[in-house]
Amino acid sequence: MRCPLQPYTAGTLISLSLLLLLSTCSALYEDQIKKFDWRSVHVGALKQVHVDLNHFQPRVLLSTNEQVVASLCPKTGEIVWRQVLEQKSRGDIKLLQVSGFSDESSDTAAAPMGSHLGFDMLTVQGHAPALVRGWNTNIGTIEWEWSIMPLNTERAQDALWFYKNSVLYHVVPVWRSHLEISAYFATSGHTTGSTSKIMAAWIKSDSCLLSGTYFVCLDGKQLISLDLLAKSTQVVATPLEAEPSDKIQSLPGLNGVLIANKKLISVNKEQAVCSELNSANYVIGSFNYRKVVAYADLTDGNLKINAAYLDNCSPVPELQMSLAFAEHYGTPSLRSFDCKLKRNGDGKSCLFLFATSAESIVAVQQGRVRWTREESLANVIDTQFIDLPLADTEGTLENEMKGKAVDSSNLKRDIISAFMRRITTQALQIKSLFLHVIGLGPPPTDTQRAGLVRDSFGLHKMMVLLTRTGKIFGIDNIAGKHHWKLYLPHVSGFENAEEMRLIVQRTSKHFPLQPLCAIVAKSVNNGNGVLFRFNPITGHAAEGGLLQLDYQIKQMALLPETEQDFVKGILMLDATNKVHVQPKHATPLADGMYMYTADVKTAELEGYFVKYAGGELTCTPIWNVRLGGHNSEQHIIGVASKNPIEHVHSQGRVLGDRSVLYKYINPNLVAFVTQAPDATHKSVLNLYLIDVVSGSVIFSMTHRKVRPPLHIVHSENWLAYSYFNDKVRRTEITTIELYEGNAQGNNSVWSSLQAPSMPLVERQSYIIPTIVEALRETITERGITNKHVLIGTASGGIVEMPWHLLDPRRPISSTTQGREEGAIPYIPELPLPTENHINYNQTIARLRNIYTAPSGLESTCLVVATGLDLFVTRVAPSKTFDLLKEDFDYILISIVLVVLTSGSLIVRHLASRKLLKQAWK
After folding, report:
1. CA 305, CA 312: separation in Å to the nearest integer?
2. What's the whole-number mean pLDDT along residues 569-591?
């Protein structure tokens, strides 16, 4: 007879299953959250903004150039909510319409009670398709959405939108021909049935804009305008006093009003303006229930804000103010303002919002800066970690350890001088301690007062960040505090889509010399090179500060050798293939240097040899490689060289038979990836490993039916790169390792001119179940710690992937030799466990780059991830083997040591007594 199933058996099985699952879970301890990391959240450069202080929840609603819609707190500037939209042209915001902020003050789109057809805010983004969305501005959610797909996607790229009386108008200009206007109900997307075509052969793409319902074009010294909603088509010409030197701008809030030559010009006969005003930017608002036009100008570092009533153009004294405006903000542009509605207000409740050329958002109230947001950090292009300076006592000891003896050949004299120097140093330290105790010691320096002193483990560093606009930040990597800011106006990146460069010319290790950094950029005015040198700890200009070069920079490199000032020179190749060195006294050190250039469009590489003779530098072309193919269809999409501060600890790999497979460690090896269209395979990627000293192609490989995004990392003797496989629609990572074989050539000094035979190549591909946005290897002080690859994903996570999972020597099946080597059997899919996400739930929006730097601990690597957000942390690929744990029991180990020491002394005493007694027997 079969026994019936007990009623609690199922529950027991479920309980056991949960216990088994819990036993395999791992997580971040709660007390470790944000202890070793921090995140800074941004929205990007301001595009459109509305300040509303009279809403039941005061807010600042904005859209940015980074395809972000957000709401800020007007009191502090903190983000209330943020929505990151689609990337590229699909997320480009064409129109931001806030309910109650149209040209007609009575026009509102607030939804009635129980209806979902209204909106607090409306956005139009993209062009093919164009997405229209209604937002709830209290919590930042989408209430409704509709889209339209234009018949001609190329024309739709120039499409314009405007909102009027609950109707959304879509204007598609066909340049030199006509205008196509379609009308839709804003909340539903249904067409109103009114689609018109207006002939306008005078419209041009570079001189036309939309001002309310008017389409306006600049033609010499006149404005030609057309009211798109007029019953009869009538072209109106408005003369100007002079031809504008800059582009004309529309003035939101007034229908048919523009800004030309710093003047207000109205093409709408029904709209009067104050034509006597003169300012670079204007904005419309209200004060004391009257419409006013506010304007602001920067003069000699002072920001002056003025306003005038629109009805009689009389000034508004309550809104006039002047304040000091910091130079690092850049040039301000007034974008919006609002005042709390009070009869006979005094102007103290008005908030003015500025966008600057340095991509900062500045809020001004009551004649002072109330808050700022540094949105240029949403576009970081380079980062360096700088060691902090030593404390006074450590600096003195550093000088002593250098042993500055006058005659080092006389050993006796050197010992005596070192002894006297030690006694003098200790006496001065005792005196300094005594004066400090009684309160008569010297005051601390600015860096010491700010806490910028090197710690014992080298984990506390200054993080120098260079942004796309030319703004530089000095940020504490532990606390995230902004210690200093600099702004370089009128600079940009180079040709070939090369960004500006941040270079460390002298580190903090040469006490008492201060560290030195340099920014290498291109001048927007004339295209020549710009060099700016500064102290990365204090942010002050150094070594002459800004230097305007008289030549264009084609390529640059950092000299490996230094003189007595420990400054590494910058070797620059100009457009005429002449070489220059900054600073100039380091010119002789450039003798024997090799350089190369790469043309992205033609995929042509050229190598040069630099020679110093007769007090001058000469540059000689020595090799040329063309990767463009027979029809020059290929172009370079990726270049990766090795980190110049990288140290290789192990020269080989021990095999299962105890032999050594030596690594092919060529410091001059650079990886180039080219892409070309193919009639059969759609897209083809070619990888080339080239020695840039000799010009030799060491290895090449072709991938068919694959395409970007491509990300590549190059370190030691290995290479890893990711791409999208079009054939199977997935992201893959290919890894390559290079070996010399069982015999090692160039075992002391590597020479590319006497290089060994071609290396042995191991390669393998893996599937990664996510879209890769960035790749970077970990780096440590001596290279002893295992290498891990940091993988930035499209979801905003950073995965720490051990190299043994990416190892191309992973065997297909488990073998004895593989087990001896410690190689894991090959599995195509790479795991992405949650415990390997180093940023846990701190999502990084629009992750672009990951930067790593060594710390003072061999086990620890410092990491900063940049994108729309900024995330700073540290990783330990081989765990913290050189650091005690946080919960280390010091009391217990002290008790054990005391007991062991006491026990040994007691046992020693008893043993001696025993030996004495035995001796007397």
Report:
1. 19
2. 92
Structure tokens at 765: 């591909």
Q: Give the burial string for 271-308 (b: 16+ CB within 10 Å, else e).
A: bebbeebebbbbbbbbbbeeebbbbbbbeeeebebbbb
Give the single-character DSSP code of 444.
P
Segments of 340-455 assigned E as strands: 350-356, 360-365, 368-374, 380-387
- Higher per-residue confidence, 455 vs 549: 549
State the CB neighbour count (10 A cutoff) for residue 503: 18
Sheet of 788-793: strand order equals 772-777, 788-793, 798-802
CA dihedral of residues 81, 137, 186, 151 (deg, nearest 10): 0
Residue 654: pLDDT band (50, 70, 90) is confident
Query: What's the pTM?
Result: 0.88
Q: What is the mean pLDDT of the chain?
A: 86
Q: Reduce the DSSP state of residue 271 to 3 states and report it.
A: coil
State the DSSP string of 51-97.
EESSSSS-EEEEEETTSEEEEE-TTT--EEEEEE--SGGGG-EEEEE
Averaged pLDDT for residues 107-129: 68
Longest dimension (CA), the chain: 135
Task: Give the span between the Cα atoms of 871 and 863, in whole angstroms.
Answer: 8
Cα–Cα dist 297/509, whole Å:
45
- How are beta strands 332-339 and 350-356 bridged, if at all? antiparallel
* Cα–Cα nearest to 463, from 385, 519, 516: 385
Please say if the pLDDT value at position 777 is more than 70.
Answer: yes
Q: How far is CA 437 from CA 278, 349, 430, 432, 447, in A?
A: 61, 50, 11, 9, 21
**Whether 321 contacts 282, CB under 8 Å:** no
Are the CB atoms for 47 and 93 separated by under 8 Å?
yes
Q: Which two tokens stand for residue 200?
A: 């306008």
- Tens digits of per-residue pLDDT, 789-815? 999 999 999 999 999 999 999 988 877
Is residue 4 over pLDDT 60?
no
753-762 long-range contacts, CB within 8 A, separation 24+: 753/693, 753/694, 755/666, 755/691, 755/694, 755/696, 756/664, 758/698, 758/699, 759/664, 759/698, 759/699, 760/661, 760/664, 761/699, 761/736, 761/737, 762/736, 762/737, 762/738, 762/808, 762/809
**Chain segment 256-301, per-residue pLDDT in tens:** 999 998 999 999 988 889 989 999 889 999 888 889 999 999 999 8
CA atoms of 286 and 76, how far apart (whole Å): 22
Give me 798's structure tokens: 């950073």
Dihedral class, residue 220 (left if φ above 0, else alpha if ψ from -120 to 50, else beta): left
